[in-house]
Amino acid sequence: MLVTKQPVLRRFWYPVIPIQELANGPKAFQLLGHPLVLWLDEQGNPCAAVDRCCHRSAKLSLGKVVRGNIACAYHGWQFNAQGTCVEVPQKGCTVSPNYKIDSYSCTERYGYAWVCLADEALVGIPDIEETRDPNYRSIPEFYETWKCAGLRVMENEFDLAHPAFVHQGTFGTEEHTTPDRMEFTETEWGLHVRGVLGVVNPELQQQNLKMDSVDTVRTLDMTWFMPFTVKLRIAYPNGRVHIIVNTMTPIDDSTSQMVQFCVRNDTEADTPTADAIAFDRAVTLEDKRILESTDFDVPLSPNREQHIFTDKPGLIMRKKLAALLKAHGEVEQTRETAFFIDERLRPEEWSPPTKTTSIGLTHRNLKP
User: In terms of residue numbers, what domain contains 89?
Assistant: First the structure.
């Protein structure tokens, strides 16, 4: 599935940038192939609009914020949060009602600016209830670009067979190649999986968890929020809880912005923030090495890849995404179909079919 070619995915909320990064001026971001400019209004609320001035097409992200409006660096035209031009500084020029740019719904949650490209979202921003609990603290962790599909990461987070091999440097062990238990519950807009997995407990984690044992058990409550957000609640036998919230915000078909924070039921005195981040950093780098080697065009049809029983969460995700497309009158767009309907696709992003297609065309006999 090519995410930029599925319009229904524009009807979800995505975190695009930490709020604190907007404090020094506007920033650019690409969401589902759409170039955006983000800035803060006079009340400190995030705003989002197309990163293109309607006057001479300059990038608005090169400009500055003036009284809560985004001002173009080319001729100084200013636009408010609704995309309406409110100032043309050239003497003798009036502001026409036609001077507008596309603006998008934008709000702050969990320390990030979230954007929805559609007029109305299908579902709200995922609710992480522990962020409102005084017994928990939130820690920003990673904001970085990954060269892989968000769906691959979502499936990976629920894949309890991979830690024994991918995470041998952190918590995985070949003594536990499969989980002790897995239970599945589908929801309207996602999936909940409960699992139990035996893991090793290296020295850094012993310090973080205040557990001396060299091995332990993770009780996992994992929630997938369609399309690309996951909440992993990891509970340990001593009562310590470490929650990972990860959204893979789609930049384009092959690239995602990892936005991850964690929530813990301990204090800075119990476990320094730097130590909690250090362990999760090691884990994510193990995943990144593998996931960036995978094909970003994740097939929703189950017969395009092979599976085992621990892949069931990912198969449920694919099934629900396929049903979402169907419910909105869409069919899955892939690299092969896109080649014939979108001449803008770069050749290096396409792998030619192994045989001539039904319409008699191959990669070789198509003109550039």
Answer: 3-116
